[in-house]
Amino acid sequence: MKKILIFILSVFPSLIFSQSSPFTDVFPIVNGKVVYSEVIQVEGKSVLDLYKNAKIWLVEAFKSSKDVIQNDDKDNHIIIGKGYFEGVGHNKNIVNAKYWFTIRIDCREGRYKYTITDFIYDFDVIVMGTKTHFNEDFSKWGNVAFDTKYKELLDKKYPPNNERNAKQQEKYEKYKEELDNELEGKYKETIGRYSLLDKQIKSMIESLNIAMKQSEDNW
């Protein structure tokens, strides 16, 4: 298990280093959670029109409304569904990666509100032939106190209260530079992976917004 945890830290660099968090730099955050939400006005559409369109979109977007729709409130015209995006940009040792999420669509006369949140990061790690499954709250998994961890690593190797001679100071500066360089590379790597997920989410939102404007004849 120790080897697996070490491997996890190496292939998920956002858990170790960052001067600013890739998590908060890429995703919209509300109370520490990833939340995509907006109220969209649709002229000429009744609450029933929008409610029907939302159900049709869920069937088309996720292929099976039976599996996707978790709650269908016909009286209040609210639909709650669950889906996932395939994980992208991972090391070859990470397999079956999925980002599960909940989508809620509230319909009113001439408008609707979508809320996409509750992301769960589900994946397997294969190290030396051993597969270990992880199912984590993405908002906690991805958003770690990066600066604090970076300082801990530096202070552990070179305690801040210890006096250093010229040679030790030189080694300290070299080690710090190595950490800084590693930080920059790992930050860019993590930004890239998170940006791909953000792009997938926004593409889904665009699909929803187009579908909600449709009339029955257009489907």
From TrEMBL:
CDD domains: Bacova_04320_like (cd12190). This is DUF4468 domain-containing protein. Residues 36-121 form the DUF4468 domain. InterPro entries: DUF4468.
